[in-house]
Amino acid sequence: MSENPRVVLLGAPGAGKGTQGRRLADAFDVDHVATGDIFRANADMETEYGTPQEYMERGELVPDEVVNEIVREYLSDLDGWILDGYPRNLAQAEYLADLGGVDVVVHLDVAREELIDRLTGRRECSECGETYHVDFNPPAEAGVCDDCGGDLVQRDDDAPETVETRLEEYHEQTEPVVHFYRDDAPEVDFVAVDGEQSLDDVFADVRAAVERRVEDS
Ligand code: AMP
Description:
5-stranded parallel sheet; 3-stranded antiparallel sheet; binds adenosine monophosphate
């Protein structure tokens, strides 16, 4: 492995992938590639399957052909990266292996009830993407991003009905990916992290997992 780690962050919606992914990317000075952020920024992009917006508002996965191509382009010039939100099914995991593989997979583990509380109270900065929670991690001033002063908004897909569908999609499509990396990918360092700890404690565990691999390389 080069010094720049290739890391996949797995976890259900609301597990903390975005927050931890940004911190990890800063700490290791690599790019944070979040497919959900890419689709939100390109929600109206026309594809032969329709727009990403149509899938996101139903809480369904965007078709593999669209996602895979985007990920291929984003990763093509990068040495190391933190992937957040990809792969989300086994076909995507196979595609990523064909692109050159992964060094570390971190699974952020959070119970379903906690995920629902987190998602429905989540607020996101419309400028920089930083996330907050109305109860668990509020900004200093309600509705305003601490980092950049942008407006905080609720994502459309954090509405309760859509949250149900997203958790169902995760269970059906993405849990097999967790099992695949855990049980059937010996070349990958798989680490399960208790995602219900404080943000700093989760980060310490995630960072240690990546550091171990960087030091061993
Ligand atoms: P996220 O912010 O990761 O929860 O993603 C938001 C939405 O973007 C998802 O509910 C999907 O509609 C879409 N999306 C993000 N990543 C993927 C992916 N790897 N495969 C398919 N759809 C995705």
